[in-house]
Design a protein that fits this description.
About 5% of the residues have low confidence. This protein has seven helices and 27 strands. The termini are far apart. Strands 1, 21, 22, 23, 24, 25, 26 and 27 form an eight-stranded mixed beta sheet that branches. Strands 15-19-17-16-20-2-18 form a seven-stranded antiparallel beta sheet, with no helix packed on it. Strands 7, 8, 9, 10 and 11 form a five-stranded mixed beta sheet that branches. The chain is α+β, with helices and mostly antiparallel strands.
Length: about 550
């Protein structure tokens, strides 16, 4: 055989062998593909159920937790049971209140809540009524005025003029007020004192000074208790009259509401009854006939602009009452959390860091007593005052580490009754409301270290909302290809195929919203492993799904 023929034969043999190998591989792959089986589950069995009322914030993980004890308003401290530096265990008594009036104060606070709830009900009814109103045409408020005529006898028939409001609010020389309006901040800014019982705010007043009801309302509904002394002065000597003053404790008006334009005398501490001035009339002088004035016809109802303003006011009243109720309920819960004998107990194991003076408690809103915990990891987040009634101690919070991306569960240990200035919440809430800090304990801390920052997510426990029909799948079931997300879904022939989907937000750091491309009846497979290929046969997976 010639050399050329041997080369041709060799090439042919190689091609035959290659073809056999290729055919064998193809046959093997075809056989393998047709014998592989992927397990699938229905989307309804895998979706995470979510109420859609997610609360989000962030916080820094720390191995130190502070239990801050704030004093309950209008409660008297009976005894301090610990001292600074003392080690305590959860449940150990820290301090006690005088319970002589505690039952009455609880009843009063509960009555405050009930009163506000009734006001809220009435405000909602008023809003419903206004929304059903049909506007009336705009009114013609023009009243024809008679032609002015000279009256030469006016000066002879009228005696002294009636008393009218003083046009000037304050005397520049003495700094004393002729009357005090509803502007609480302005009056206090010009006063001396700190607002405590021992050092009240002192506001100087001229003889005959009166206080408007709006000012008393501002005192009654002030957030913090304050003491004010309205002091009458002697103008000639510019000194205080020792017998003429009015000392006011802002809490003495709790539950009372005054007419804004009512006037109360500082000297008598009683409402001012205005009487018309005394007039002298000469019997020999005849009065000219009074001109006839035609009053426009009064149409009952609201014009379009009046109705819009009334609806806006009713909506504001509802919002205000709702916030007041939440705050009052929080104060009531704080009072109820004190045991029947008035004892406040430690909630954590730790060391007593600070203890206040029961005879001179802090007036700046700072905690009276603080216990520093020493075990475990804690994180502090914040929630809106609109959410105060929907979150409670013992509720679960989901934490997602900024560094590792790992997820952890934490349990709320404490919700502060006082708002914080450093808000770390975000989302769809009202940015103008106050935010309250809460502290949560992380039991399983493997993979989490002190000082890390985490995103915090939770769903209200008392929202009353029902799960919606949105689909939320665990991240592991979703893959990306060329910037697009897809899942492996079973087709009508019971084989896997790629199904591209539109994704939305992530919840709890673990599940992604599927906005389109998938429905609850679809069956999907885990998209990793040797069976995660298009065309692979499917079978039902009998294992339980991911209910949340």
């Amino acid at each position: 055989m010639s050399k050329g023929k041997r080369i041709v034969v060799t090439i042919v043999v190689i091609l035959v062998i290659a073809a056999l190998i290729t055919g064998g591989i193809v046959a093997y792959l075809w056989h393998q593909k047709n014998n592989l089986t992927a397990e699938v589950q229905s989307v309804s069995n895998l979706t995470w159920y979510y109420s859609g009322e997610e609360m989000t914030s962030y916080g820094r993980v720390t191995n130190d937790f502070y239990q801050d004890v704030y004093l309950i308003p209008n409660q008297t401290i009976s005894e301090i049971l610990v001292e600074e530096g003392q080690e305590v265990k959860a449940g150990d008594p820290l301090m006690s209140y005088d319970t002589t009036l505690s039952s009455l104060q609880l009843e009063i606070k509960a009555l405050d809540v009930e009163t506000l709830e009734n006001k809220l009900i009435l405000a909602r009814r008023e809003l419903e009524k206004l929304k059903k109103e049909t506007p009336i045409p705009d009114r013609d408020t023009t009243i024809p005025e008679p032609e002015p005529e000279p009256d030469p006898i006016t000066d002879t028939i009228l005696g002294p003029e009636p008393i009218v409001d003083v046009p000037v609010q304050k005397d520049d020389a003495t700094g004393a007020y002729y009357y005090i309006s509803g502007d609480l901040d302005t009056a206090l800014a010009k006063s001396s004192g700190t607002g405590t019982p021992e050092d009240p705010y002192v506001i100087l007043c001229m003889p005959g000074c009166y206080v408007e009801g709006a000012y008393l309302n501002a005192l009654a509904y002030s957030e913090e208790q304050m003491f004010v002394r309205l002091q009458i002065i002697q103008p000639l000597t510019n000194t205080a009259d020792p017998d003429k003053f009015w000392e006011i404790n802002s809490r003495q008006f709790n539950g009372m509401t005054f007419s804004d334009d009512a006037k109360w005398s500082v000297e008598t501490k009683q409402p001012v009854v205005e009487e018309p001035g005394d007039f002298y009339v000469d019997p020999e002088v005849e009065f000219p006939p009074e001109p006839e004035i035609t009053e426009p016809e009064v149409i009952e109802g609201y014009t379009a602009s009046e109705l819009a303003a009334a609806i806006k006011k009713a909506e504001k009243d509802i919002k205000d009452y709702d916030l007041q109720i939440r705050k009052a309920q929080l104060e009531l819960e704080q009072m109820q959390n004190v045991s029947g004998d008035g004892v406040v107990a430690a909630t954590v194991d730790g060391i007593v860091k600070t203890v206040g003076d029961k005879d001179n408690p802090p007036q700046d809103g700072s905690p009276f007593l603080t216990v520093s915990g020493s075990e475990g990891l804690y994180v502090t987040g914040s929630l809106s005052e609109l959410q105060l009634g929907e979150v409670e101690v013992g509720q679960t919070v989901y934490a997602n580490s900024w560094e590792s991306g790992m997820n952890f569960e934490a349990t709320i240990q404490e919700i502060s009754p006082y708002p914080t200035e450093n808000n770390n919440s975000w989302g769809e809430g009202n940015p103008n409301v106050s935010f309250y800090p809460y502290t949560a304990y992380i039991a399983d801390t493997q993979g989490l270290k002190n000082g890390e920052y985490v995103d915090l997510t939770m769903t209200p426990s008392r929202s009353g909302g029902e799960a919606n029909n949105s689909i939320y799948l665990q991240k592991a079931y979703i893959r990306e290809e060329d910037g697009k997300s897809y899942v492996l879904v079973a087709d009508e022939n019971n084989r896997l195929k790629k199904q591209y989907v539109e994704t939305g937000k992530t919840i709890y750091g673990e599940a992604i919203e599927i906005k389109s491309g998938l429905n609850m009846e679809d069956r999907i497979a885990f998209p990793y492993g040797k069976t995660a290929k298009e065309g692979v046969k499917v079978k039902e997976d009998a294992s339980p799904g991911m209910y949340r």
